[in-house]
Design a protein that fits this description.
69% of the residues lie in helices and 4% in strands. It has 25 helices and six strands. It has a six-stranded parallel β-sheet with strand order 3-2-1-4-5-6, with helices on both faces. It is elongated.
């Protein structure tokens, strides 16, 4: 008799907490700790994970939320700017890795079909692991982070094409269909999906979110449902769940509810991704992989060193600095779980033998582990190798300079106005008329929508949400204007702001004399009391009208 699913999951969580704490003490990445836990609990260890379906389901939901958040952070205008380099780098890396990997595997004594399979498998990088690492380092918004996400999405599409081609070769499609017909069907599905997403973004999502935002709890439930639902749709259409979840987030990225959603979902994402890394570990069969360890080690070194060099060469030729190319290149220094799936499909079709799966599994274990350290410690690593990377940068990094010029036009916000009631709206309108870069924040979706309709930046969020406040552009702001009606909200806001070390000016509007005293005690630089202003105005008018005599 088994221990039961609930007990098993609880033991997994306890083991993850214990091993994670040990990893923190030893200053090791949590991802490595969780993968090792999966190996220990899987067939290569104590074989304690019996409810594999449950673990896999939780992992899939975590992946959907992770890719949803990535799409949520990608502004459509930003995508247009980096689209060319993402596509060029993605396709270039795929091409060169397949060619070099094929020749290298042939030299290591494998037949041409096995070499081709392994070479293709070496091109697929783990989008999930890379996004998680970049998110932990707060580098998703950097130039190299954006470019990396772009070419990882290109890789994901290539995975879909490769797997579909394999299923056709194996007779998975109807006999009368050929590969060209299947690829044509994929193109039509992509067009239909893109058209549907465009219509939803233009006519549906904005109005729906404004209605749901009346309840923040309901807004978050919809966000998770939307992410998981589109992931399921992507899977149903023959694409990956990852692509569907990414598009779900991208569809919501232009809305002013983006920040309110993105700051609340990371804890849920991190909890569910724990099961992904454990699931990944349980699928590594070390006993089989050790049989081909020498070949696996050579190919792992190619992935760890060769793939980043390929990306650096392409980005350098396109006019990017070697530092940007180096950081982006590190994101392809590992293979993904799709690489193992691809080889496993070839094994089921009789195209390759067990040795190909053993090699790929071992390469995956080595590269995922080592590339995690390379990405986490990318800055000191770059400082050590910087002098050797000059050939990967043109004399004039024109593409990056052009990008920087475009970015400079998007000047940082100088003022943040909290509260878009009558006073807040007037203040924000005034700054906008003066040409001052200011943004408004309010919990009322209608107030935010009204400002957005006038072309004035405004976002939906609450003062008591610490994560949301920390995500605001406080570093660039020189002035904060607080017109919130409730003192409790102001206290929560000031507590978070003071913790950041904000060194600009803070102006707050009081609603009463006691509120004015409380605001002055909160280190507010200037407190405006409308009642005092009204008294002073009346007093001045009285003095002016007083008869002389």
């Amino acid at each position: 008799m088994g221990i039961g699913v609930y007990t098993e999951v609880s033991l997994i969580l306890l083991a993850a907490a214990a091993l994670g704490a040990l990893g923190l003490l030893m200053r090791q990445p949590l991802i490595i700790a969780y993968i090792l836990l999966g190996i220990a609990l899987g067939p290569s260890g104590f074989e304690l994970v019996q409810s594999q379906d449950v673990v896999d389901l939780l992992a899939q939901v975590g992946i959907a939320i992770l890719l949803f958040l990535v799409g949520l952070e990608l502004n459509p205008d930003y995508v247009r700017r980096i689209g060319a380099v993402a596509v060029a780098t993605g396709l270039g890396q795929l091409t060169f890795t397949i060619i070099i990997g094929f020749l290298l595997t042939l030299l290591l004594g494998k037949d041409w079909l096995t070499a081709l399979y392994i070479a293709i498998a070496l091109t697929f990088s783990s989008t999930i692991i890379i996004v998680k690492l970049l998110s932990d380092k707060r580098e998703l918004d950097t130039l190299h982070g954006r470019i990396a996400i772009g070419f990882l999405i290109v890789q994901d599409i290539a995975v879909i094409v490769a797997l579909v081609a394999m299923s056709v070769l194996g007779g998975g499609q109807a006999a009368e269909q050929n590969l060209a017909q299947v690829l044509g069907a994929i193109a039509l599905k992509l067009i239909a999906l893109g058209a549907g997403m465009y219509l939803a973004m233009r006519y549906l999502l904005g109005r729906l979110l404004r209605f749901l935002a009346r309840s923040l709890e309901l807004l978050l439930i919809f966000a998770v449902a939307w992410a998981v639902g589109l992931a399921a749709l992507g899977d149903w259409l023959g694409f990956s769940k990852e692509l569907g979840a990414f598009l779900a987030g991208f569809a919501l990225s232009p809305t002013h509810f983006r920040d309110a959603i993105s700051t609340r979902l990371p804890p849920l994402r991190d909890f569910l991704l724990l099961f992904f890394f454990i699931d990944l570990g349980t699928k590594f069969d070390l006993a089989t992989a050790q049989q081909e360890w020498s070949i696996a080690l050579i190919l792992a070194l190619f992935v760890l060193i060769g793939n980043p060099l390929i990306v650096m060469a392409i980005m350098g030729a396109m006019g990017y600095r070697r530092k940007t190319g180096f950081f982006a290149g590190l994101t392809v220094a590992q293979i993904s779980e799709f690489s193992i799936i691809f080889i496993a499909m070839g094994l089921s079709l009789g195209h390759v033998r067990e040795d190909a799966l053993s090699i790929t599994t071992m390469v995956g274990l080595i590269t995922i582990a080592l590339s995690t350290y390379m990405i986490l410690y990318s800055q000191p690593l770059y400082q050590r190798v910087e002098r050797f990377l000059k050939p990967f940068e043109r004399k004039e990094p024109f593409a990056e300079k052009r990008f920087e010029a475009q970015q400079s036009n998007d000047a940082p916000y100088e003022v943040i106005v909290f509260g878009l009631g009558r006073t807040g709206r007037l203040v924000l309108d005034h700054y906008h008329a003066l040409g001052i870069r200011a943004i408004g924040v309010d919990y009322d979706p209608e107030a935010v929508a009204a400002m957005q309709a006038k072309g004035i930046p405004a976002i939906f969020g609450t003062a008591e949400d610490q994560e949301f406040i920390l995500g605001l552009p406080l570093e660039s702001a020189k002035l904060l204007v607080i017109t919130l009606p409730y003192l409790d909200d102001v206290q929560d806001l000031m507590q978070t702001i003071n913790a950041t070390g904000f060194d600009g000016r803070i102006i707050a509007v009081a609603r009463s004399e006691p509120d004015a005293h409380a605001l002055r005690a909160m280190s507010v630089d200037e407190v405006i009391n409308p009642f005092e202003l009204a008294f002073d105005a009346i007093r001045q008018l009285t003095l002016q009208e007083r008869p002389r005599g």
